[in-house]
Amino acid sequence: MHEGHRERMRERLYLHGESLTDCELLEILLYDFITRKNTNPTAHRLIDCFGDLYGVFSATPRLLSAVAGIGRQTAEKIYLLGELYGRIRSCERTYIRLYNFSEVVQYVRARFARTSCEKLELYMTREDCTLACAHTVSNVDRAKVIIDDKELSLILSEAKPSNLIVAHNHPSGKAEPSQRDDESLESIGKVCRMHGVFLRDSVIVSGEDFYSYYLHDRMGQFR
């Protein structure tokens, strides 16, 4: 009965989650805990009881389970999420910085140290060159590093980085780039320009061998 409504709400969450009200967000969260009932009234009762989302996620499981429609397991899950969020907020984050070549080399070597198959990674950094997101691309063939323009465009539009560093490996052979590597980087550069993202470097690693387009003064043609 409520499946169509739930799917529409999940679609809103996926595409425009910021537009949802506190009560709607809580309603969607309850879908996974209350599978056969309309969770909207329960979400309203929680907000009415505890005042706001902070109050809901700060309440003890025993208090939560006193609200009509909230069983013990649901109360435990809500409390767990509140406890996790509180601990996340209190954590002092350690940011990975990819500012200079030495920092990039160290990070890339660590990421590819135990990799036997070919892969491509995208390192998206903020304006201060701290890492915002590292994305591993799975659709890589042995002859050419491939990332679909649409996939890259989606990643950049969601992550909104200031800079992008590309890294891939040559498991067998030298780190020297091939013509196909150049072609792939040219395609990546075009997508970066569309999104206003600065393409800082593309590095290739093969064992202890390492190649940087930036150090070889070749990035200008791909930006």
What does this structure look like?
By secondary structure, the protein is α+β, with helices and mostly antiparallel strands. It folds into two domains: 3-90, DNA polymerase, domain 1 (Orthogonal Bundle), CATH 1.10.150.20; 101-221, Cytidine Deaminase, domain 2, CATH 3.40.140. Helix content is 47%, strand content 15%. The protein contains nine helices and five strands; from the N terminus they run αααααααββαβαββ. It has helices at residues 3-16, 22-31, 40-50, 53-58, 61-64, 72-90, 101-112, 149-159, 179-195, and strands at 120-125, 131-137, 163-169, 198-206, 209-212. The protein has a five-stranded mixed sheet, with helices on both faces. Helix 9 links the parallel strand 3 and strand 4 (198-206). The longest helix has 19 residues, at 72-90. The N and C termini lie far apart (53 Å).
List the helices and strands and how they pair.
Layout: H1 3-16, H2 22-31, H3 40-50, H4 53-58, H5 61-64, H6 72-90, H7 101-112, E1 120-125, E2 131-137, H8 149-159, E3 163-169, H9 179-195, E4 198-206, E5 209-212
Parallel strand pairs: 3-4
Antiparallel strand pairs: 1-2, 1-3, 4-5
Task: Give a summary of the structure in a few sentences.
The protein is an alpha+beta fold and 223 residues long. It is built from nine helices and five strands, in the order αααααααββαβαββ.
Which keywords apply here?
223 residues, alpha+beta, DNA polymerase, domain 1, Cytidine Deaminase, domain 2, 2 domains, 5-stranded mixed beta sheet, 5 strands
